[in-house]
Amino acid sequence: MNAGSKISNALNYYHKTREKQESRAHQINALEKSVEFTEALLEYSSSTNCTDVLTIKNRLLSAELDGVEDKKDELQTIIELYRTIGGGWMN
Questions:
Q1: Which single residue of 11, 15, 74, 82 could bond 87 by disulfide (Cβ 3.0 to 4.6 Å)?
Q2: What does pTM read for this prediction?
C-alpha cells in the first residue's frame, strides 16, 4: 500500500468517526428530551412510572458512554493520520 492510499484511508476513517459523533450527539439530545418528558409525565400524570424514567436514563448513560468511545476513536484516528504523514514518531 502506498503512502497516498494510507493517507486517504486515514482521512476517510476520520470523516466516518466525525459522522458517527454527530449522529451520537443527535441520539443523546433526543434521549435527554425523552428523560425530561418522561420525568414530567411521572410528575403530572399516572401514565408512567419510575421504572420508565430509569430505563430512559440508563439508555442516555449508555449513549453518553458510547460517545466517549467515539471521541477516543476519533483521537486515535488523528494520531494514526499524523503517523501516516510522517509526524515525528520513530518506529
A1: 82
A2: 0.82
In the three-class reduction of DSSP (H, G, I as helix; E, B as strand; rest coil), residue 90 is classed as coil
Q: Are 73 and 34 in contact (CB under 8 A)?
A: no
- Residue 87 grid coordinates: 509526524
Q: Treating both helix axes as pointing N-terminal to C-terminal, what angle do 50-84 and 3-44 enclose, rounded to 10 degrees?
A: 170
Is residue 80 within 8 Å of residue 14, measured between CB atoms? Answer: no
Long-range contacts: 74-77, Cβ < 8 Å, 24+?
74/14, 74/17, 74/18, 74/21, 77/10, 77/13, 77/14, 77/17
Please tell me the distance from the alpha carbon of residue 60 to that of residue 67, in angstroms, as a whole number. 10
Question: For residue range 40-80, what is the model confidence (pLDDT) as tens digits?
Answer: 999 898 888 899 999 999 999 999 999 999 999 999 999 98
